[in-house]
Specification:
By secondary structure, this protein is an alpha/beta fold. The chain has one domain: Vaccinia Virus protein VP39 (Rossmann fold). Strands 1, 2, 3, 4, 5, 6, 7 and 8 form an 8-stranded mixed β-sheet that branches. Helix 1 crosses helix 6 and helix 7 packs across helix 8.
């Protein structure tokens, strides 16, 4: 992909998520990565495994319905750790992580959309008032070029964001760079079981809807491995797509119409829970 094409994709994503941040409501009114109403966003989060009681601790407007999994459930965060959320949006997973790591930890959110970052920082004020915690930091930046130092992060999480990047191998290299030796990855993302029909890519909303940018599961595994990560496990889950089908999300209805007769969304799209680790020691470093 050319650099100009990569930048066009980034700009399209930036515009789409700016609209979500400014409207306080999803751009398509359903429950996809395109955003959703507060009611549908909560329903989606609960069905993806988020604790309803913990959701009540979050500032109003934090949950925009942009999740396709629950990375918190597989991150095993510990008190005092530093955790980095890629594409942190309004702060949904950052605030949940901040409660898991406690006052001695640090939860960092990185987002390339200025209006979304502004929303997250406003939410942070409310979060501190609600919980007494002041252990979050939101930074403007692209996930291909993270504004985070080398080997400074215990855990990297992300929720339905990597698929939006036009240069996924570079994202995985950045993840490996910022992780401490022994640091871990817990990412929820969309992946493909098989290539989508050509017509799906023609949908203007599909990229922001986290569909057109999804890659095959084998490609996801290969990119993480090439970045130097180990212990890579990709668990495929159908819960997200099932929710999209059940709540009749507009984007997903439109995609369904483009699929061959008799086929379902779940024949193509799946939620992937990805875990991996940066090795504690690399060959030739003298520590093995």
């Amino acid at each position: 992909m050319s650099k100009s094409m990569e930048e066009q994709i980034r700009e399209k994503v930036r515009e789409g998520y700016s609209a979500i941040a400014e409207q306080d409501l999803g751009c398509c009114g359903g429950g996809s990565c395109c955003g959703s109403s507060p009611e549908v966003a909560r329903e989606l989060a609960v069905k993806l495994g988020y604790d309803p009681a913990v959701l009540e601790t979050l500032p109003e407007g934090t949950n925009l319905g942009l999740s396709c999994g629950n990375p918190q459930a597989i991150a095993a965060l510990e008190p005092g750790e530093t955790v980095l959320d890629l594409g942190s949006g309004a702060g949904f997973d950052v605030f949940l992580a901040a409660q898991a790591i406690g006052p001695t930890g640090l939860a960092i959110g990185v987002d390339m959309t200025a209006s979304m970052l502004s929303k997250a920082r406003k939410n942070a004020v409310s979060f501190t008032q609600r919980t007494g915690l002041a252990n979050v930091s939101f930074r403007l930046g692209e996930i291909e070029h993270l504004p985070v130092g080398d080997a400074t992060v215990d855990a990297v999480i992300s929720n339905c964001v990597l698929n939006l990047s036009p240069d996924k191998p570079q994202v995985w290299r950045e993840i490996a760079r910022v992780l401490k030796p022994g640091g871990r990855v817990a990412i929820s993302d969309l992946a493909l079981k098989q290539p989508l029909p050509e017509g799906v890519f023609a949908l203007a909303e599909s990229l922001v809807g986290c569909v057109a940018g999804a890659v095959l599961v084998d490609e996801m595994h290969a990119a993480a491995q090439a970045a130097g990560l180990t212990e890579i496990v990709i668990e495929l889950k159908n819960d997200y797509v099932a929710v999209m089908e059940n709540i009749q999300d507009p984007l997903y209805r439109e995609i369904l119409e483009l699929l061959p007769s008799g086929q379902k969304l779940s024949d193509y799209i799946v939620s992937a829970a990805v875990t991996a680790q940066r090795p504690r020691c690399t060959p030739g470093s003298g520590c093995c």
